[in-house]
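Summary for the lay section of the report: proteins are chains of building blocks that fold into shapes. Here we show the chain for Acetylornithine aminotransferase and then a coded description of the shape we predicted for it.
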Amino acid sequence: MPLFNVYPLYDVTPVSGKGIYVYDEKGNEYLDLYGGHAVISIGHAHPKYVAAISNQVAALGFYSNAVQNPLQVTLAERLETLSGCEGYELFLCNSGAEANENALKLASFKTNKKRVVAFSNGFHGRTSAAVAVTDNKNIIAPINSQQAVTILPLNDIEGVKRELEKGDVCAVIVEFIQGVGGLDQGTAEFFEQVDLLCKANNTFFIADEVQSGYGRSGKFFAFQHYNVTPDVISIAKGMGNGFPIGGILIHPSIEAKFGMLGTTFGGNHLACAAGLSVLSVIEGEKLMDNVNEMSCYFVKLAKTIPQIKAIKGKGLMIGLEFDFEVGDLRKELIYKHHIFTGGAMNKNLLRILPPLTIRKEHINMFFEALVEVLSEVEELEVEN
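The coded shape description reads as follows.
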């Protein structure tokens, strides 16, 4: 049976990983500056992570949410402490899309409204409501387009005010650093005004931290760079370092009800063990400090390269924008220099999402390769 052909694939087959490197079936080493869409937060095969999963699966890998699971309670307590989101409650699921789906569902339940405001170039997942609030018509099927959604430009505070005052908006959902869209950000004034407007209009303010959370921005959550208090915070990717896990943090003012949300696999024993090990490493190895130090170093080197027209993002969620499409550049980096990088909806943007354990020597390797590739591109342009 063939695989359903929906992914354009690089001709690379990773079979193992260690730290910031992955290795293919021929033993070639690749520097991983993409982390599988920002999923690898503490590095490939971190020994604490491997031990936690191994020990847990040997004891009990799964049972349903019909029984007590103390690992969920411990994970919630550790997440509250490290994130600083005091009083929030945790609902666990399996992915970022499912996290956003539940966030939107909760907002609709609690406000008894159904329209959502989202923003241009935003990406929130591929499930029903999550994809409907994603600004990409190519992945929205007719069944998804039944959702009541209004897409506004980032920083259009007057547009947000106008829509919320109509009285039918259950939620505003936003990435504080856009991922797939291209690392664009709203202003502090915009985010803070949106927060106030939501509170004044019985509208949930949902912070999509699926990609930007877990220390990647230099703070535990990207929204913490601003003076805002989200009603719901969605999390996934870096949460499990590769093990499927997601969740939403729910403001204490929102009351739970039996049956309101549910999941079969969400919050299973193995997922919680993975999640706890990630938090332990982030804290024990002071990875958020490393994010800020390595980000400053990365940006310093990026500013020395004239072909880079803009540096976007925060922390280790960085976009390098050129005045040409970067598809061929990425191919040169992966095939010739064995470096994984990412793209975005902005075809001129190179996306950098390395494990939070990255060091200066890895950054040096990247920029040496980048300079070489850019020089080759310029030589070809001169010859032509």
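Put simply, here is one thing we learned. The radius of gyration is 21 Å.
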